[in-house]
Write a structure and sequence with these properties.
By secondary structure, this protein is mainly alpha-helical. It has two domains: 373 residues, Sodium/glucose cotransporter, CATH 1.20.1730.10; 91 residues, no CATH class.
């Protein structure tokens, strides 16, 4: 009971601080301030907030489980997203995206492929963001249940309400600064847990004596699986709404570029930590379920105060993802649905009001789904994969080239997205992950439709092709 009291006290101070940051940035008058922080984000804030958001609920817990089961070779699963993915965006796209003056990905797609493609891509993105937010809500509940021993629903409700308050009140300014603060808690906490767990396991030599040799072989998964992971994960960051949001909010084009490059530098080494914790944790707690190894390490190897601080780290992991997801949901709806189709004459004040309301509604819907329909992993996987399969090729081929016609983008999204779903329902013929045949198919559709409808041309101003 005393331990729970310490957990509650530390967590309470942290949550009050998050709300305080939200209200500190609440005095805004325009939607642009709410959505893009007045385009004032600096390189340090950009990089810290990106790492804090990218980690997510699944990274610390899920990757720790991968380290438990697979060892260091599992790092290839996340490496493509956080290193080459961020580096490619930084070098080739970030500056030009910032210079475009866009607020959402949907605006780029509108200028490149027309309003139909914009609407289709927006609903794909909103569906994916909803599944992501629901996962964060479930993670709130799971951590509360493990560490406090009470109903997961209580943790879901408390966590969701706190994030809703500071995000809806403070907008991107609050999200960026809370994420930066969460970075300062998250990184030292997780990094410190690595030597603590390895020491508890008896040191690196003892780990080598106990764990299978394959756990220490970076390439033990085999090149087929590693290449498959590369193809699955590499498109992710290039389509992540929170990455685009921070690029659009950067103070200058150079800030957008350097922010992405520094994000890669920070994320690459950091993502090794959960794997090492999982590997060492397997030696200390060999019978622990893999997905629970990180909470098990935190609650059993640390003092009550240390456990409370690591609880705060886990909360920071989830909240830094949840707030960005909510804000991106609001931005996509307000700009690409409300302003584009429902009320084109809406002024900044109206858009601000709708944006805050959408933030609250999106969080509430995710909470309801998490409480009453907690099976979400399959839907999230489908949402992510359809996002990557349907949008990756038309978005980036259209971004860098003017040669593709307007109609080609919409047809590529529709057919490749449908193909991906059908391939998944067929249980992955030839044991190929759906993303592998979907990406080349999406490019073929772009080429074919451009030849069938060449007179359609690109957007009148060619703005999206840079």
């Amino acid at each position: 009971m005393a331990d729970k009291g310490i957990y509650l006290a530390v967590m309470g101070v942290y949550l009050v601080l998050m709300i305080g940051i939200g209200f500190y940035f609440s005095k805004m008058k325009t939607f642009q301030e709410f959505a893009l922080a007045g385009r004032t984000v600096s390189v340090p804030l950009f990089a810290m907030a990106t790492l804090a958001t990218a980690v997510g609920a699944g990274s610390i817990l899920g990757l720790g489980g991968r380290g438990f089961n697979e060892g260091i070779t599992g790092y290839w699963y996340i490496f493509p997203a956080v290193v080459p993915g961020y580096l490619l965006i930084g070098w080739f796209a970030a500056s030009r995206l910032r210079a475009s003056g866009y607020t959402t990905m949907g605006e780029l797609i509108r200028d490149r492929y027309g309003p139909g493609a914009r609407l289709a891509s927006t609903f794909i993105m909103l569906f994916y963001l909803w599944t992501q937010m629901t996962l964060q809500v479930i993670a709130f509940g799971n951590i509360w249940k493990v560490l406090m021993g009470s109903s997961a629903t209580t943790g879901m409700i408390i966590g969701t309400i706190i994030v809703l308050i500071y995000t809806a009140v403070g907008g991107l300014q609050a999200v960026i600064w809370t994420d930066a603060f969460q970075f300062l808690i998250l990184v030292p906490g997780v990094v410190a847990l690595v030597p603590i767990t390895i020491s508890a396991a008896g040191g690196w030599a003892q780990m080598r004596a106990v764990l299978p040799p394959a756990h220490f072989d970076l390439f033990s998964a085999g090149w087929v699986k590693i290449i498959t992971w590369l193809l699955i994960m590499l498109p992710g960051p290039s389509l992540s709404a929170y990455v685009w949001n921070k690029i659009f909010a950067a103070k200058t084009e150079r800030v957008a570029k350097m922010g992405m490059l520094w994000s890669a530098v920070l994320c690459g080494p950091f993502y090794l930590c959960p794997y090492l914790i999982g590997m060492a944790g397997r030696v200390v707690f060999p019978k622990c379920p893999a997905e629970q190894i990180v909470p098990m390490v935190m609650t059993n190897l640390l003092s009550p105060l240390g456990g409370a601080l690591m609880l705060t780290v886990l909360l920071a992991v989830i909240m830094s993802s949840a707030d960005s997801i909510l804000l991106c949901t609001s931005n996509a709806f307000v700009i690409d649905v409300y302003k584009a189709y429902i009320n084109p004459a809406a002024d900044e004040a109206q858009m601000l009001r709708v944006g805050r309301n959408v933030t609250i509604i999106a969080g509430a819907l995710s909470l309801l789904w998490a409480v009453y329909m907690p099976i979400i992993n399959v839907i999230w996987t489908l949402g992510y994969a359809v996002l990557a399969g349907a949008l990756f090729v038309p978005v980036w081929f259209g971004f860098f080239s003017k040669r593709y016609s307007r109609d080609s983008g919409l047809w590529s999204m529709i057919i490749s997205g449908a193909f991906f779903i059908i391939w998944s329902l067929m249980k992955n013929p030839f044991k190929l992950d759906p993303i592998i045949p979907t990406l080349p198919l999406s490019w073929i559709i772009l080429e074919v439709c451009t030849r069938l409808f060449p007179s359609q041309g690109v957007a009148s101003d060619g703005k999206a092709a840079m």
